[in-house]
Amino acid sequence: MSWFTGLLAAVSLPLSAAVPADSALVNTLQPKVRFVFNFDTRYTLLDNDRARISGLKTGLEWKNKYRAGLGYYFLSSPLVTQLPVAADQAPVEARVKFAYVAGYGEYVFLKTERWEASVPLQIGVGKTLNQYHNQQGQVVNTERVPLLLFEPSVSGHYKIYNWVGVGAGAGYRHMLNQARQETSHLNAPIYYVKAKLFVGELYRQVKRKHCRKAV
């Protein structure tokens, strides 16, 4: 997992220490169908503590208004909870971990030269567990608990230039298997503010300038 976290850090363009980054790579497959790849980071609240969820997603866009694909997300910030391990022992500090794979669909209801607004929906499956040290100092993982979640949200961005912009969004993560005590606390709002780098457009601009110089 460390290599993946390092990759996200290497490509991020933070607006501030509290602002996640996002970069989009779009390659044309057909005149009206495009391949889309995004590094996707959002914040959420878990047990009233702010947590960062990092991930990436890839898919297709067609007719400039529909997108669909797959994504992978994991809890990337340290989140500690008090875990009861035995009736005759005090609760121990445990680190919460979870990850999930999601299928997503997105409808773009506003698209101009500068502005875009859309409604993304995600349905994901994954697992969560707690990790702690026992009295002997050994690392112990609790039983993996399955996750089934649904995330509706609203997202938008503004292009400052053709190849760079800023975006924001908000939504809610709802656990469909919330009857399990281990997953009910994962019901929480999600939000994000991002710098967006449109690598495909930047590449086209650099290529056009190079061609002009060559002529």
Ordered list of secondary-structure elements with their pairings:
Layout: H1 2-11, E1 21-30, E2 33-46, E3 49-62, E4 66-75, E5 80-83, E6 92-111, E7 115-133, E8 139-141, E9 145-159, E10 164-175, H2 181-184, E11 188-198, H3 199-214
Detailed description of the structure:
The protein is mainly beta and 215 residues long. Helices cover 14% and strands 61% of the residues. The protein has 3 helices and 11 strands, in the order αββββββββββαβα. Strands 1, 2, 3, 4, 5, 6, 7, 8, 9, 10 and 11 form an 11-stranded mixed β-sheet that branches. The protein is elongated, with a radius of gyration of 20 Å.
Descriptive tags:
single chain, 215 residues, mainly beta, eleven-stranded mixed β-sheet, 3 helices, elongated, disordered N terminus, signal
Q: TL;DR of this structure?
A:
The protein has 215 residues and is mainly beta. It has helices at residues 2-11, 181-184, 199-214, and strands at 21-30, 33-46, 49-62, 66-75, 80-83, 92-111, 115-133, 139-141, 145-159, 164-175, 188-198. It has a single domain (2-214), classed as Porin (Beta Barrel), CATH 2.40.160.20.
CATH topology: Porin
Number of strands: 11
Please state the overall shape, judged from the principal axes of the Cα atoms.
Answer: elongated
Radius of gyration based on Cα positions: 20 Å
- The unreliable regions are 1-21, 26-30
Query: Structural class given helices, strands, pairing?
Result: mainly beta
Largest sheet: 11 strands, mixed
> Helicity level, as a percent range?
10-25%
Domain count: the total is: 1
Q: Overall mean pLDDT score?
A: 82
Oligomer: single chain
The SSE order reads HEEEEEEEEEEHEH
Please count the helical segments.
Answer: 3
In whole angstroms, how far apart are the ends?
Answer: 47 Å
CATH C-level name = Mainly Beta
* CATH architecture heading: Beta Barrel
Question: Which range does the strand content fall in?
Answer: over 45%
Protein name: PorT family protein
Keywords: Signal
Signal peptide: 1-17
